[in-house]
Each structure stands twice: as C-alpha cells, then as structure tokens.
C-alpha cells in the first residue's frame, strides 16, 4: 500500500472541507506520481477544520506490547497517520521526554526487527490500525548498519508506508529517495525555520508523500504557543512544492493542532503524547487507554475551524 495510504490520509483534508464552495480540482497528481492537494490549497478551504493528525510514538515505549495496543487505540481515536520512532541510543534533536523514552525502549529490546514484526501483526489484524499510515522515523546510522536498500525493503514488506531520516546528509538524499521510490514508500526530510528558501526548495524537491516542517528550532518538547512566523513560512514553502506540509516540534494542545491545520495539511504531536504514556505507565494505568483519550482531545482541534496564527 505504501504511498497510497499516505495519499489517502492527506486526502482527508479535502474530504472534510466544503468542496462545493470552491471551483477546480480537489486533488491533482504530481510529477512524482502521488496525489497532492489541488483545490484544497485555496485559502477559502483552509481554516474550516480538517487535516491529518499525526501522533508520534516511540516504538517499544514502555514496551512493544504496549506500543502495539496504543497504535490500535489511537487509530480508533481518530489519528489519520502515525509517526513511529525507531529507538536510537543518541536521539537527534529530541528533548528529554522522547530521549528517555527511546533509551527505555532500547533497554526493553525494541530492535528494528522486533518493531517491524509488530507492524506486520498490526497489518495482519482486523483493527483500524490495519490500514493506518505508519511512517518510520529513524537515524541514518541504523539504516546504514542494516544496509539502505535492504532496510527500506524490510520497511515496505512489513507494511511501513514512509521513511523520515532526520540526520541524513542532503547529498545522500537522492539515492535513499530512489530506494524508497523502488520500494513504494514515501520519503520525507525536515525543513527548519533557519533553512534558507533556496535550500528549503531543494529539500522539498527530494521529498515524496509530504514534507516535514519544523515549527521551531531547537529540540522537541511541549511549548505554550506556536511561532508567529509559521504561516509565512508555510506560504513560502507552498511556492516550492506541491506536496502536503506536516508541521511538528512543540505542538501539544488541541488549540495548537487547530491553528497548525489552518495553514498546513498535517499536525504532528510527539512529546505531549509520549509524556502522557510515560506518566500512565508510572501510575500502572493502561497506556493505550490514556493515549487514546489524549488523541481524542487533539482530534477536537483537528476538526475545529480556526483562524491562522499571526
């Protein structure tokens, strides 16, 4: 399925809006063969509610059985896609919440092989996670240890739909993008607020499926407000790529999800969810139930009309 599941997740942006008030096509096929937002880019369509809520989980935190149950639970709670972090001993740009979750997952045996076996079980099941887009975020050191073509092939055969490699050198991106294209999965890179526009266009041009836009510089973690310049950055990126834009780093409340989805197609929530999972585990509560409650709350932001942040 691969990119097809991701295309459908972002197509929900179109489906949730009132298309009758906007003329022209709703979806357009790009030169990369994927479907991209067409009419739903019209500013009259943004801010009416709708978009892809994309929770981030650390695979194996607190253990793989809990992750498997949590993916099922948040799929049922309304997540349109999941970003699944494959633990690494030296997390890149991750704040203390996600870094500690990754270290705990490694202590509990969350290897890439065990994680992909879990994904295979989800794809073979009958729950809503069977068809939920799952995008792996992983360090290039893990990819290289296994071998790039082999690793990407393993992702695709397990049912992973896309790959994000946050520490990949840009010069090496075209070859890995080619591996992903051959395997039929998407390939996303990160664009920071400090990235010059010419380089941002180059990065976006190497992506497929969607582009990951960092809301802020620094490390991951919960923040009280979105950066004031985010809408202008999104507008500039729209001139550089036809791909959907998903925004992450520091998004933690329904209101922030609402405001992100007023200007972008996807909102990624990580540290706030990982923290709640850790707290539930510490109390001895069901982490899947706690995660689902939080995602249900975030969904209220994804479905609420909003004005774009200033």
Structural write-up:
With 310 residues, the chain is of the alpha/beta class. The protein has twelve helices and eleven strands. The protein has a nine-stranded parallel beta sheet with strand order 7-6-5-4-3-11-10-9-8. The longest helix has 16 residues, at 287-302. It is globular.
Give me the secondary-structure topology:
Layout: H1 3-16, E1 27-29, E2 35-37, E3 52-58, H2 64-77, E4 82-85, H3 96-107, H4 112-124, E5 134-137, H5 140-146, H6 148-158, E6 162-164, H7 173-183, E7 186-188, E8 190-191, H8 197-205, E9 211-214, H9 230-238, E10 245-248, H10 254-260, E11 266-269, H11 271-283, H12 287-302
Parallel strand pairs: 3-4, 3-11, 4-5, 5-6, 6-7, 8-9, 9-10, 10-11
Antiparallel strand pairs: 1-2
The strand count comes to 11
N to C succession of SSEs = HEEEHEHHEHHEHEEHEHEHEHH
Q: Bin the strand percentage.
A: 5-15%
- Radius of gyration of CA atoms, rounded to a whole number: 18 Å
Q: Which geometry do the CA atoms define?
A: globular
Number of helices: 12
Sheet with most strands: 9 strands, parallel
Could you list the spans in which at least 5 consecutive residues all have pLDDT below 50?
A: 16-48, 218-223
Largest beta sheet: what is the strand line-up?
Answer: 7-6-5-4-3-11-10-9-8
Separation of the first and last Cα atoms: 38 Å
What value does the average pLDDT take? 85
Tell me the structural class. Answer: alpha/beta
Residues in helices, as a percent range: 40-55%
